[in-house]
């Protein structure tokens, strides 16, 4: 039967690649990043599986996650790799789909024999893939900002050590919003779990800070036009809190501006709506004077973030957070630092755990990361200092609030790490391996 | 003549059982998934390939099984066995109501009505996000992953449970299409007016087909959740209504083995081509187009046309 | 917002949605009515229209108005030619077999999406409208000193959206006239009613099909050029218009262009109106169910004759 042939892919990968190239005739990128010069070490490279959203709704993020990760691996290898072993990044596209996500974890683990899997962003892909990582006993380092890790929903093998979760981000915004922008808030968010996290945690935090949520407007994710929902915003709203995801984000922000026509409440948004979008795009002029949460400021803030410039240079971003080769190619700057930082954290943790590519080492690696606490700001951690909570597998760190001034996001406020704390909801260290 | 089909299908099941020991761990895991999805495709094929009703909303049947199982196990702490039964009952009732509503329509209107019901299903999952987990979905806890002492964390249990369910559905359908009812479905597909004139109650037969199809797809959804441990709204999206159609057409509509062939083909097409290039969807698109040009009846359909006319 | 202004905004947005759907769907209606095949890639022609428009207005460094007019002229032609090519290379060779066409156009969808992703990229990008002003609207209320005019916040429309509604009306009117009055329209209608008879009368059916498929793609792209300034270009934007057009064509009644337009108005307006009374996701559910029940009780659509 034909199937048997399909199951064992061709013997000569290279010749097949040539054949495919000849047929397709298109520019192709091999999915694995080809051999970093192997002279540094005689031992096998450490393989880091990279679950990346190359296609599907997460592709705009995935592209920059990939660029950032490649830059980090290049740096690590040029500095001698991990304990003398070179690092190889093995990327597989998950199509931003939870079913394919689980399959990719399986492929990276079983077929490619990766040492760890990392890099997933979209929450549903993380939640779809994490059980498989747990079954395979594969350390799974996500860069997702979802609350799924710290909520206790996942397992001991899943960690989020370098990007903060939405619960802490949102709660840390409440003091600033109620203290500076206004007490009466209306929220607009996607009718997705991610949007519900915003709704629940922000409204609770606002009430704690003496604020009040007037209306919560959840927009169905299949929507492509939004103006008809804006009249639901109550007249006495002082602050409009907005966040949106999906292919229609730009329409959302544009229509929001047109609706108010420069009047109306102060806008406070999560940059997720405008990641990878040029702030000087037509239709976004009205955003001037509005505020955004950013995980890391897209526009260079001078020396405020001491390690930002070196990181910016390494990943190929200019001072506006766009690609140095194409100023219209804007990065997902507020999120992608998580990939850079996770890879350097892995270098540190693997070294500390004397990692040897066996299962005992993987357990040691997780225990080592769990034992970490303070992560000071450095070139490896340019976003700022962080505190990792080994019990909840979640990191906590500073949040940035920027204000749009002349099409540029300028830093208005940086929260402290303590602002982002909330009580533990799980203790993963009590689970067995 | 028909015994050839039975023999072939038993042979396929036997071959798949043997395959577990021949291929690597990675493919064992993948084939387990494929078998469950092939159940989904077989359920779809009964309605589309045998009865001639093209639905664009079968994701809702898969998702009914998925949530029927996942929610009963997680929210009400049903055991895996109870959850599975519950999912099947819910799937039965759901496909019955969808059947009553949609069978007033046929042809393109049937496509649209099923498509939109499925869209409503997806939105309802989001609307009740507090319980369903919305788009993020939820992970099934240990008690929901254990059935008759088998824990589906173990790859061997996974593989053989999937194969068992697949075999039950495949052989069940092999026997079903030989029955009077099964033959009547084909008669409806070939010529509805003539079937009516021959005295068949066309509506009742279509209704039966929708129910069986819906329950099989529900079984696929429930067992996917049981064996792989995740439920989420992504499986209720339009995309997952188009996929079984694609698998069935690639494999060969109206053949028993077609859905499996199509699912295997589609999976490995993506899995292998993505190993060579990040632009693998170009290859996938190209292959699909070429296949419709040169194997118009799908892979198994082509086999039937060229050499095995007895294939059912 | 007060009920009155809210209702007016909802009606205006409903009219805009109707215009958008009608423009996109009319191309599919022409193709579907004639060939009876489901073109899954129709939404991708729409997406290509938007992406090409972005390319012309941004990369050629023209001012927005010149760029927009250039796009209006060139983009439908370019996408139409691509569609014709797809018809010649693929659909024609499948003899327009309904099932094989679905699979082949799914393949085409992958090809178009992936090529766009590789060249244009995954980002959402805006296109500047040639003109756009916000017109604030007044409202009256009964105050202490009797009726008085005031300007509610958020109550306004933009001129470009208004222009899209008007353009849709004009374009659809022209299209209906063309089909009714010209020789090409006659050829299309004759082929649509009975392609074998048309063939017997010497109508080059195969060429008519290719041209009509091109027109269908071109119309989708034309809709996209008009719409992209109020939306955005994105490589995954084709899904939604495909579904909506498909629904509208069937609800209107297979092959009936007036039916398609009426259904677009029905669906667009009800979408706007229902959103006033329910929370957004519930409103979508209600609006979708409404359309479903229209079809259940009128299985041949609003203007449909007996099927097949």
Characterise this structure.
The complex is a heterotrimer of chains A (433), B (312) and C (308). Chain A is an alpha/beta fold. Among the domains of chain A are: 2-32; 166-304 and 398-420, Response regulator (Rossmann fold). Chain A has helices at 2-7, 13-24, 59-78, 98-111, 123-135, 166-181, 193-208, 249-260, 308-315, 333-352, 359-371, and strands at residues 46-52, 87-93, 116-118, 140-141, 158-159, 184-190, 212-219, 239-242, 266-270, 291-294, 374-375, 386-389, 394-397, 400-405, 408-414. In chain A, strands 7-6-8-9-10-14-15 form a seven-stranded mixed sheet, covered by helices on one side. In chain A, strands 2-1-3-4-5 form a five-stranded parallel sheet, sandwiched between helices. Chain A is globular, with a radius of gyration of 22 Å. The two termini of chain A are 41 Å apart. The relative contact order of chain A is 0.12. Chain B is mainly alpha-helical. In chain B, helix 2 (25-50) runs parallel beside helix 7 and helix 2 packs across helix 11. Chain B is globular. With 308 residues, chain C is mainly α. Chain C has one domain (12-127, 160-297): Orthogonal Bundle (ABC transporter involved in vitamin B12 uptake, BtuC), CATH 1.10.3470. Chain C has eleven helices and four strands; from the N terminus they run ααααββββααααααα. Chain C has helices spanning 3-35, 42-59, 64-89, 98-119, 159-181, 183-193, 195-200, 205-227, 239-252, 257-277, 280-297; strands at residues 134-136, 139-143, 146-150, 156-158. In chain C, 56% of the residues are buried. Classes of the chains: A alpha/beta (433), B mainly alpha (312), C mainly alpha (308). Chains in contact: A-B, A-C, B-C. At the A-B interface, helix 1, helix 2, strand 2, helix 4 and helix 5 of A face helix 2, helix 5, strand 1, helix 12 and helix 13 of B.
């Amino acid at each position: 039967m034909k199937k048997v042939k399909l199951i064992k892919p061709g013997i000569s990968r290279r010749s097949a690649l040539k054949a495919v190239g000849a047929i397709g005739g298109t520019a192709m990128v091999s999915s694995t990043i080809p051999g970093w010069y192997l002279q540094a070490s005689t031992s096998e490279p450490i393989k880091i599986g990279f679950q990346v959203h190359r296609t599907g709704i997460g592709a705009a993020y995935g592209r920059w996650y990939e660029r950032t990760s490649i830059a980090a691996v290049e740096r690590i290898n040029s500095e001698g790799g991990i304990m003398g072993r070179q690092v190889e990044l093995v990327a597989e596209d998950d199509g931003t789909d939870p079913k394919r996500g689980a399959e990719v974890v399986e492929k990276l683990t079983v077929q490619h024999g990766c040492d760890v899997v990392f890099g997933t962003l979209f929450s549903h892909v993380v939640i779809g893939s994490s059980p498989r990582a747990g079954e395979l006993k594969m350390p799974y380092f996500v860069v997702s900002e979802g609350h799924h890790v710290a909520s206790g929903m996942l397992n001991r093998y899943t960690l989020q050590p370098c990007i903060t979760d939405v619960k802490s981000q949102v709660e840390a915004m409440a003091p600033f919003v109620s203290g500076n922008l206004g007490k009466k808030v209306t929220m607009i968010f996607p009718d997705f779990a991610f949007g519900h996290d915003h709704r629940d945690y922000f409204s609770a935090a606002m009430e704690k800070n003496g604020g009040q949520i007037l209306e919560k407007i959840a927009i169905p994710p299949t929507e492509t036009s939004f103006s008809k929902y804006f009249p639901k915003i109550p007249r006495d709203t002082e602050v409009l809190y907005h966040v949106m995801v999906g292919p229609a984000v730009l329409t959302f922000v544009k229509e929001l501006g047109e609706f108010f026509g420069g009047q109306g409440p102060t806008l406070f948004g999560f940059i997720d709506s405008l990641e990878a979008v040029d702030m000087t795009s037509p239709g976004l002029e009205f955003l001037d004077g509005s505020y955004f949460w950013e995980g890391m400021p897209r526009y260079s803030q001078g020396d405020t973030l001491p390690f930002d410039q070196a990181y910016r240079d390494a990943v190929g971003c200019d001072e506006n957070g766009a690609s140095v080769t194409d100023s219209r190619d804007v990065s997902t700057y507020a999120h992608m630092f998580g990939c850079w930082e996770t890879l350097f954290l892995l270098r540190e943790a693997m070294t500390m755990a004397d990692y040897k590519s066996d299962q005992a080492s993987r357990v040691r690696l997780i225990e080592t990361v769990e034992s970490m606490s303070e992560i000071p700001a450095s070139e490896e951690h340019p976003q700022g200092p962080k505190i990792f909570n080994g019990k909840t597998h979640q990191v906590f760190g500073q949040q940035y609030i920027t204000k749009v001034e002349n099409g540029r996001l300028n830093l208005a406020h940086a929260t402290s790490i303590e602002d982002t704390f909330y009580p533990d909801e799980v203790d993963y260290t009590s689970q067995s391996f | 003549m028909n015994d050839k089909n039975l023999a072939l299908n038993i042979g396929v099941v036997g071959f798949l059982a043997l395959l577990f020991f021949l291929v690597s761990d990675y493919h064992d895991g993948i084939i387990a998934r494929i078998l469950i999805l092939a159940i989904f495709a077989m359920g779809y094929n009964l309605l589309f390939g045998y009865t001639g009703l093209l639905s664009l909303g079968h994701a809702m049947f898969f998702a009914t099984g998925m949530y029927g199982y996942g929610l009963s196990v997680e929210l009400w702490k049903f055991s895996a066995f109870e959850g599975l039964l519950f999912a099947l009952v819910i799937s039965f009732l759901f496909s019955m109501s969808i059947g009553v509503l949609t069978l007033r329509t046929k042809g393109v209107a049937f496509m649209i009505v099923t498509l939109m019901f499925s869209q409503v299903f997806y939105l309802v999952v989001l609307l009740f996000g507090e319980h369903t987990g919305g788009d993020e979905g939820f992970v099934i806890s240990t008690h929901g992953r254990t059935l008759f002492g088998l824990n589906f964390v173990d790859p061997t249990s996974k593989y053989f449970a999937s194969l068992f369910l697949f075999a039950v559905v495949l052989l069940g359908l092999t026997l079903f299409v030989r029955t009077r009812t099964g033959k009547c479905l084909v008669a409806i597909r070939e010529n509805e007016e003539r079937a009516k004139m021959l005295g068949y109650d066309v509506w009742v037969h279509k209704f039966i087909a929708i129910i069986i199809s819906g329950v099989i797809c529900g079984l696929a959804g429930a067992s996917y959740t049981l064996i792989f441990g995740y439920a989420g709204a992504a499986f209720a999206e339009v995309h997952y209504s188009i996929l079984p159609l694609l698998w069935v057409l690639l494999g060969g509509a109206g053949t028993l083995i077609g859905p499996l062939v199509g699912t295997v083909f589609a999976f490995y097409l993506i899995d292998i081509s993505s190993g060579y290039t990040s632009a693998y969807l170009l290859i996938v698109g190209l292959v699909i187009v070429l296949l419709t040009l040169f194997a118009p009846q799908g892979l198994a359909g082509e086999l039937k046309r060229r050499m095995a006319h007895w294939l059912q | 917002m007060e009920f009155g202004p809210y209702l007016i905004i909802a009606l205006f947005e409903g009219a805009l949605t109707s215009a958008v759907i009608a423009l996109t769907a009319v191309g599919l209606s022409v193709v579907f009515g004639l060939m009876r095949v489901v073109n899954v890639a129709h939404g991708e022609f729409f997406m290509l229209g938007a992406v090409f428009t972005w390319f012309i207005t941004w990369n050629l460094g023209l001012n927005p108005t010149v760029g927009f007019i250039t796009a209006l002229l060139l983009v439908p032609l370019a996408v139409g030619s691509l569609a014709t090519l797809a018809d010649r290379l693929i659909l024609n060779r499948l003899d327009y077999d309904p099932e094989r066409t679905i699979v082949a156009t799914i393949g085409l969808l992958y090809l178009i999406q992936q090529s766009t992703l590789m060249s244009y990229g995954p980002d959402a990008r805006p296109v500047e409208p040639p003109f756009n002003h916000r017109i604030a609207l007044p409202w009256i209320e009964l105050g202490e000193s009797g009726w008085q005019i005031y300007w509610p916040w958020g109550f306004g429309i933009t001129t470009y959206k208004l222009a899209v509604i008007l353009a849709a009306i004009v374009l659809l009117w022209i299209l209906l006239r063309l089909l009714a009055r010209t020789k090409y329209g006659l050829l299309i209608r004759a082929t649509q009613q009975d392609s074998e008879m048309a063939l017997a009368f010497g109508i080059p059916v195969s060429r008519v099909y290719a041209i009509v498929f091109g027109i269908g793609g071109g119309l989708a792209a034309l809709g996209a050029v008009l719409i992209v300034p109020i939306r955005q270009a994105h490589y995954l934007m084709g899904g939604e218009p495909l579904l909506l057009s498909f629904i509208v064509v069937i609800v209107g009644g297979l092959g009936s262009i007036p039916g398609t337009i009426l259904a677009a108005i029905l669906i667009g307006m009800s979408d706007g109106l229902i959103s006033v009374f329910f929370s957004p996701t519930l409103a979508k559910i209600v609006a979708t169910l409404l359309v479903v029940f229209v079809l259940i009780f009128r299985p041949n659509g609003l203007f449909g004759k007996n099927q097949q």
